[in-house]
Amino acid sequence: MSLNEVYITRTSHYFPNSPVSNDEMEDFLGFINGKPSKSRRIVLRNNAITNRYYALDKNQKPTHTNAQLAAEAIKELFKGNFEGIKNIDLLSCGTSSPDQLMPSHGCMVHGWLPELGSVEVVSPSGVCCAGMHALKYAYMAVKTGDARQAIASGSERLSVSLVANQFEDEVHKLEQLEENPYISFDKEFLRWMLSDGAAAFLLSDKPASEGLSLRIEWMEGISYADFMEPCMYMGAEKEEDGALKSYVEFEHHELNEKSIFSIKQDVKLLSPNIVPLGGKILRELFKRRGLDPDTITWYCPHMSSNFFKDKIYEEHIKLGHHIPYEKWFVNLTTVGNVGAASVYFMVDELFHSGKLKKDDKIFLLVPESSRFSYMYALLTVV
Q1: Residue 101 is part of which domain span?
Q2: Which of the listed residues 212, 239, 274 is the one where a domain comes to its end?
Q3: 103 cis-preceded (ω within 30 degrees of 0)
Q4: Long-range CB contacts (within 8 A, 24+) of 320-324
Q5: Contact 334/51 with Cβ under 8 angstroms?
Q6: What pLDDT is stored for residue 269 in this prediction?
Q7: Domain count, the chain
Q8: Phi first, then psi: what are they for 213, rounded to 5°?
């Protein structure tokens, strides 16, 4: 059986509303316990994010659903030729923040795109890697001939779980117990890290008739959940032994009192592991794939914070893979950490930057701290 080449022929993005500066964040997210955060400036200094986007207004009311964000990004793929959307065989949508547990995120996106007609839909779950998993499913479908054209998207709407009223019951309970009435850092930390938005790719078994395309050479992923405990989680509480207690096991009143549906991150587990585990497979992967770091033209590593930039660079040096900073293309500071969509935003901005030329090699690395999973890919400009 011969396999098709697979090309990203178009890329697009959609951000809700206007960019939000650092000083405006609590105007949108609200003040917990009516007081400015003590940790905000420290976290922002480390992550170096200066702008992000929220699908919220200043009354903490949602302006878009996650599914709507993804649908708007997909519509942008067909701007000027919307009839082309009728030729799509597959819709593959990744997110870590679906609007509901059921139906699936992908089906909800499909519901906002009736012009697609009836097509196959897939909804990979996860965190940052979910967007790459969506891309890999679409890539494999086109490669095997199951689809001639496919759409892959990554999107997040995390702001609704970060607004102050999500933590009011917990703070009130702490006040009753005469404890310090602030939520723990593992919850508040992520309020200053995350952003909303969506981006999409159009995949085809043929390159675009005009302009550049990106041929997907390969995609690989790995999980270290066989020996790593959960680090980032939502809808659960981490117990002393590292296991997660599911939201379905809590009493109804505890869900709010303990902010069970807030996003949490075990920062002590994150810092010493996220970078070394991301490099664990790289030496073998580069050798097996015949990839010489010197041939990489552009490097797009997804980073939750600029804090990790030098650490990633040093890890590559340790592995003998020197990728100088002038080859890095990262837009974290201007769009924020948009989880499953972040790598899409980097590729989209690079694709439309005018910087690419034929035969350029683009290496993608996406870490996921939830239980330490990683995705890698190589693209060639054609």
Answers
A1: 7-212
A2: 212
A3: yes
A4: 320/283, 321/282, 321/283, 321/286, 321/293, 322/293, 323/293, 323/296, 323/299, 323/363
A5: yes
A6: 94
A7: 2
A8: -130, 165
